[in-house]
Specification:
Distance between the termini: 27 Å
Shape: globular
Order of helices and strands: EHHEHHHEHEHHHH
CATH class of the largest domain: Alpha Beta
Strand order of the largest sheet: 2-1-3-4
Number of helices: 10
CATH architecture of the largest domain: 3-Layer(aba) Sandwich
Length: 180
């Protein structure tokens, strides 16, 4: 499955690390554009200048880890597309140009299912998507989540409760599945 990761799922860190951990295990093929990666880096500005510098180094690492994920712009494609928020048309263009199956986003209102279906695409929310991956590949998803939790503990130098970590990342279904 080929999935465009919208900027809103690349930032925050925990969600991004879980998603990319699943992608690294071959559970799906991530796609994005340079513009999506730039939106992620710019979104961190609200946390301060050091956060943006850190995000830019993480963007470089993500590019290196997934060199085939960047979809180049398709000339003229955006001009024929329409979405409620014109600022998101580039995401739809990436999905079409990258032959994606879905767009992973929290912004349901900006990506109407009917508009996406007309292009052969689905809109997926991160929690449902990860829960579905877990349903078919529980060990691989659990490993990706555990790696993320372990990094969070290393950064904080304190224990990090899995349920709380996943709920803060807006992944309550996945948290419940992993606690079962």
């Amino acid at each position: 499955m080929r999935v465009v990761l919208d900027a809103c799922v690349l930032f925050p860190t925990v969600l991004r690390e879980i998603l990319l951990g699943c992608a690294a295990r071959g559970l799906f093929v991530p796609l994005w554009s340079e513009r999506i990666l730039e939106e992620w880096a710019r979104a961190t500005r609200r946390l301060g200048p050091l956060a943006e510098m850190q995000a830019r180094s993480e963007v470089a690492a993500v590019r290196a880890a997934f060199p085939a994920a960047t979809v180049p712009p398709q000339p003229g494609l955006e001009s024929r597309l329409h979405l409620p928020d014109e600022g998101d048309i580039h995401v739809l263009a990436v999905a079409i140009g990258g032959h994606a199956d879905a767009i992973l986003t929290f912004n349901a209102a900006d990506f109407p299912r009917g508009t996406l279906a007309a292009e052969g695409l689905a809109r997926r929310d991160p929690d449902g998507f990860l829960w579905e991956l877990w349903s078919f590949h529980p060990e691989a998803v659990a490993e990706a989540v555990e790696e993320t939790r372990a990094r969070a503990e290393a950064i904080s130098c304190a224990p990090v409760a899995l349920k709380g970590l996943l709920k803060r990342a807006r992944l309550p279904r996945l948290a419940k599945a992993l606690q079962a």
